[in-house]
Amino acid sequence: MNHLPLTISADPERIVAWCNNEPRSLSRLLMDARTLDGQLPDRSCLINLCENRYRFLVGLIAGILKGQKIVLPPGRANEDLKRLQQRYESIYCLTDTDTRQGDIEIHRYVDPISSDPIEQTIPEVPSAKPLFELFTSGSTGKATPHQKSWGTLWEGARLTGVRLGLDNLTQAAVLATVPPQHMFGLEASILLPLRWGLSVSSEQPLFAADIAASLEKLPAPRILVTTPLHLRNCVEEGIKLPQTAFFLSATSTLSPTLAARAEKLFDTQVLEIYGSTETGAIATRRPALESDWSLLPGITLNQEPKAWRVTAAHLPQSILLSDRLKKTSEHQFILLGRDSDMVKIAGKRASLEDLNLRLQSLDGVEDGVFFLPGQRSASVPRLTAFVVSNSLDEQEIALALREQLDPAFLPRPLFKVDRLPRSATGKLPQSALVALFKQCGAKQ
Amino acid sequence: MLENEVAALIIDTLNLRVDPSSIDPQAPLFNEGLGLDSIDALELAMSISKKYGFQLRSNDENNANIFTSLSSLSKHIESCRTT
Questions:
Q1: Residue A39: what pLDDT?
Q2: Distance (Å, rounded) from C-alpha A143 to C-alpha A346?
Q3: Which residue has the higher pLDDT, A142 or A194?
Q4: Going from the N-terminus, what domains does chain B have, and what CATH number goes with each?
Q5: pLDDT of the residue at A423
Q6: Do A444 and B17 touch (CB under 8 A)?
Q7: N or C, fewer C-beta in 10 Å, chain A?
Q8: How many Å apart are CA A133 and CA A259, to the nearest integer?
Q9: Contact B14/A412, CB-based, under 8 Å?
Q10: Across residues A408-424, what is the average pLDDT?
Q11: Alpha carbon of residue A252 to chain centroid
């Protein structure tokens, strides 16, 4: 079997991470990973829930060394973990924060005592083996697993890095506001650094002031990996950020206005990634200047009757996209929208049909439907739900849904109604839901 | 009382449609409690900065302390507010 290196540079003194102003060298990282490798339980799958990005990286490498599959769950809800446990018999969680007491086996990450690093060789990773498992849907239940090999991730990081000009930025330090457990965070804050020799901050700041503080701790040049939501928070708070080489945004479409404001305010370039869990990153653009997405080199898009198909040498198979798009040239396209059944909230996708089924199967719920209203002003889209129930009140229904769904998909708000405006055939026309939404909103 | 005011701000900002008095001041706001997520936290941060004139900072990396409960959030606002 072919192998690829774990990271590009063999210089043991190279800085790979920053933990609270303190640099971590490549040799320290490898030593910590080997220490952890010796402590991890003998299981076939590792769910890496570490929130500190350095610890996540140590856990990931230790898992690879131990030959365990690295599972990155769609969410942290107990329900999500329970399903993984049903899927794999021999599975446990590696966590640095979680105090949950559940059925699933927990291995708590303990920071290894620092000692002088000894000579470490760069591990070789099998390139074709499905080492990672990620999930597409954020709603539980029908979450679809996707296998990723090191070869796919490594080549994807090469293509993205070439486009972003990382060959001239190998000293850069990355700060990410997104978790490494999702595809964008994994690619941008773990794979890009390993592939291009960048360093990464252990922190995952949330608020604008946190982002500023975390960036301050990093040496220039800095790269901020983020989302439109965090970006909007920074712009609206009028925060001062240290100089960055560029921002990299994904998970939902960035408005050109917001991108332009951020570029001006923070004197930087705001670049955007288009991709999915199935494909990884496939295109980029700079929304302040262009609406067209440019495909990464080697990626081709072909139209089929129902959808666009993505093909690339590093993807084990071609993949149908769930977005509608229009090609504007051989290597460029614009996005038109999503398939109507799919909703995407905070970078998590769910099928409305699946959400509706979950709502309708709750005890005490007679009928129910999720609805995505037009975007609230200056806000991320949130779902609404209309529910018919004789025995439950709105809060009880909301409580029952919390057990079932990732918080991103919880209805805000949930309306209890006497009946749903179903047509004679039982269908719920979008126009009727729009009208019902107006009616419920007016009553509030 | 500030706690009631913050409860109303949370409900208003996040469109939760629950009764402010139904929020247990000691119950966690995220996941198990009200089921809020980090998007809600950011929305709240913006409302809080508009209303109370300061920018929220996390106490630690995972933002656990401030958002532990309505009570802890209210105490934090009380100690940081400029308006």
A1: 95
A2: 16
A3: A194
A4: 2-80 (1.10.1200.10)
A5: 75
A6: yes
A7: N
A8: 32
A9: yes
A10: 86
A11: 11
- For the record, the structure tokens of A418 come out as 């006497």
A-chain residues near B13 (CB < 8 A):
none
State whether A207 and B30 contact (CB < 8 Å).
no
SS3 for A322-353 is CEEEEEEECCEEEEEEECCCEEEECCEEEEHH
- What are chain A's domains? 3-338 (3.40.50.12780), 343-443 (3.30.300.30)
Q: Confidence class of residue A236 from pLDDT cuts 50, 70 and 90?
A: confident
Q: What is the DSSP letter of B36?
A: B
DSSP state of B66: G
Give B-chain residues touching A398 at CB under 8 angstroms: 18, 35
8 Å CB contact of B57 and A213: yes
How many CB atoms sit inside 10 A of residue A228's CB? 22
Residue of B nearest to A444 (CA): B17
- What CA–CA distances, in Å, run from A163 to A169, A176, A297? 12, 19, 8
| Site from B14, B30, B55 to mutate, A interface, most A CB atoms within 10 angstroms | B55
- Tens digits of residue pLDDT in A43-87: 999 999 999 999 999 999 999 999 999 999 877 766 778 888 888
A interface mutation test: which of B22, B37, B47 has the most A CBs within 10 A?
B37
Percent above pLDDT 70 for chain A = 92
Q: Directed axis angle between helix B70-80 and helix B38-52, to 10°?
A: 30
A41 vs B23, higher pLDDT? A41
> Cα–Cα distances in Å, from B68 out to A128, A217, A330, B55, B59?
43, 26, 51, 18, 11
Q: Is A211 helix (H, G, I), strand (E, B) or coil?
A: helix
Angle at A206 between CA B11 and CA A201, to 5 degrees: 165
Chain B contacts of A237, Cβ < 8 Å? 45-46, 49, 55
H helices of A165-222, in order, are 183-186, 192-196, 208-216
Q: Which of B21, B30, B38 is best to mutate for the A interface (most A CBs within 10 A)?
A: B38
State whether B38 and A413 contact (CB < 8 Å). no
Min Cα–Cα distance to chain B from A42, Å: 29
- Counting one residue from chain A and one from chain B, the pairs whose CB atoms sit within 8 A come to 83
Nearest CA in chain A to B55: A209
Residue with tokens 């949330």: A206
Strands of the sheet with A319-320, listed across from one edge: A299-303, A308-312, A319-320
